[in-house]
Design goal:
It contains two helices and five strands; from the N terminus they run E-E-H-E-H-E-E. The protein has 112 residues and is an alpha+beta fold.
């Protein structure tokens, strides 16, 4: 089963994390199932950019991004060529190394 290695994030997972995920599950769902609280303001409906992640390793093993996802990513803070919306990026057969950006574009944050 592929592993997802989350790099340390000051608020969400300060120590980083290594989890296992079934192929076909999204990065967001796998993270949430393991207590890594990635923001997902649109409830994972591909309507915002709060779940934006950067896939440092294993990017090519993910499913292809839809046109809607690519359009939304253009609005994400800190966009990089390996950026994906974690609610849309499905785990493939390879291990992943994922960075959660320091900032998100979220008008209303639940964690104040």
């Amino acid at each position: 089963m592929p592993q997802i290695i989350f790099l340390p994030h000051e608020e969400i997972c300060p120590e980083g994390a290594v989890i296992e995920a079934e192929p076909g599950v999204t990065i967001c769902d796998a993270a949430l199932e393991h207590g890594i609280e990635i923001e997902h303001a649109c409830e994972k409906s591909c309507a915002c950019t709060t779940c934006h992640v950067i896939v440092r390793e294993g990017f090519d093993s993910l499913n292809e991004a839809s046109e809607t996802e690519e359009d939304l990513l253009d609005k994400a803070w800190g966009l990089e060529p390996e950026s994906r919306l974690s609610c849309q990026a499905e785990v493939g057969e390879e291990d992943l190394v994922v960075e959660i950006p320091k900032y998100t574009i979220n008008q209303v944050s639940e964690n104040h």
